[in-house]
Amino acid sequence: MKQHRIIPSILLAASLAFAPGCAEKKQAFAWLSFFTGTVDVASPGGKTAPAQVKMELAKEDRVRTGAASTAFVQYGYDILLQMSENSECALAKLPEKPESAQSQSSVEVLKGGASFYADKLSKDGSFTVKLKTSVIAVRGTLFSAALEGDAAVVMVDEGEVEVTGGTAAATRVRAGEKATMKGDKTEITKIADADAKVFKDMKALRPLPGMTCIAPDYVEKYFRWRLGLAPAPVRKAPEKKDAVKKDDGAKSDEADENAPAVKARLGITGLVPGGVDAAYATGVTDKIYAALKGLRGANEVVYRAGGLDRKSVNRLMTGRINGIGQSRVIAVNVIDAESGAVLYSKTVTLREGDSLDAFAGTIAGEVNAVRGVWE
Fold this sequence. Notes:
Elements: H1 8-16, E1 30-36, E2 39-42, E3 48-50, E4 55-56, E5 62-65, E6 70-75, E7 79-83, E8 88-93, E9 104-111, E10 113-118, E11 126-131, E12 134-138, E13 141-148, E14 151-158, E15 160-165, E16 168-174, E17 177-182, E18 185-190, H2 193-196, H3 200-203, H4 216-227, H5 253-256, E19 266-268, E20 272-274, H6 278-296, E21 301-303, E22 315-324, E23 327-336, E24 342-350, H7 356-369, H8 371-374
Parallel strand pairs: 9-11, 19-21, 19-22, 20-22
Antiparallel strand pairs: 1-4, 1-6, 2-3, 2-5, 5-8, 6-7, 7-10, 8-9, 10-13, 11-12, 12-15, 13-14, 14-17, 15-16, 17-18, 22-23, 23-24
C-alpha cells in the first residue's frame, strides 16, 4: 500500500498534554475517540450510555449512530474506523495490546456502514470485518464496508482486502474497486466519484499513537482540526487553590507544576514497537530521554514518567521501532506542535551488536544542536 506522510495534527494532539496515570495495563485497547451528532454505546448487559470523547470500549459493545451523525472508533494504536450515519457496529474482538497491528481483532457491521484504516499488520496480527455472511480479511489498507438493502458492499481506496462468504470463492478487492455481494454472486466494478466521498474524512486522519496517554480534550482538538470543525466551546477552568505548605518542607502538588517558564519544552512519547517487544521500545525511549535530559535538564524535556508529565509541551518527539530479522530500524521525529513543521527527522538501522547508548547519545546530541527545537 502507499507510504503515508506524517500527519502533523496527530503529533499536535499527542504533544499538548499527557494524561497522568496512563499506564498501559489494560485488558483491551479500544476507544470511541470522537463523534458528532447522536451516538450511544450499548453494552452486552443491555445498558446504554451516551457517547463521550475517548470513551473506553469493551468486547461486544455496540456503537450506534443516529441520523446526520458519525463516530470514530480506534483499535489500539494502528486501526481506526469511522461509522456512517444510522449505523451499528459490534466490537467482536478487541486487541489485547496497544500495538493492534500485532494483535487479533475484529468488528461486525450490523447496520449501515463504516470506513476503515488499518496500518500494515505483522505476520502475527489480524483484523477482520464481518458483513452479513461475508468476512473481510485485512493486511493494511483503507477500505469501506456497508449493508445496502440485501447486498453487502466493499470498496477499497488503498491496498487490498480478501472477501470470503457463502459458497463463493474468495475474492480479492483491490484499490479503486467496488465489490457488491448478493447471495453467492459478487460483482466487481470501479469506484465512482460519488462513492469515493466515503473516504474523505479518513484520508485526513490516522490512529493516534499513544492514545492511552492523551487527554480527551486534546483528542477532541485533533479531530476537530483535521475535520475542519469549529473548536469545542471553551470550558471554564476550575479555580486553583493556594498551595499548602507542608511541615516536612516538601513542595505541594501545585508547586510541582510551576516549573520555570521556557521558550520550548520537548515531550518524549514512547517509541511505537513494530515487530519488537514493547519492553525493548520502552528501553530505547528511556535511553533517549535520559540523554536529552542530561543535556537540557528536566524542565525542558518531559517524559510521562519523568515528573513533569502534567505540564504542556510545544515540541514532540515521536517515532517507531521496526524489527527486521536481527536488525532494528528506528525512526525519530521532532515536531513543532503549533505549526506542524518537522524540526528533526532521522532513521537509523541498528544491527546486532550496535550500542543503544551510542545511538541514544547521537540522537540527543543532534536534537540538542537544532536551534529551532529550543527557540
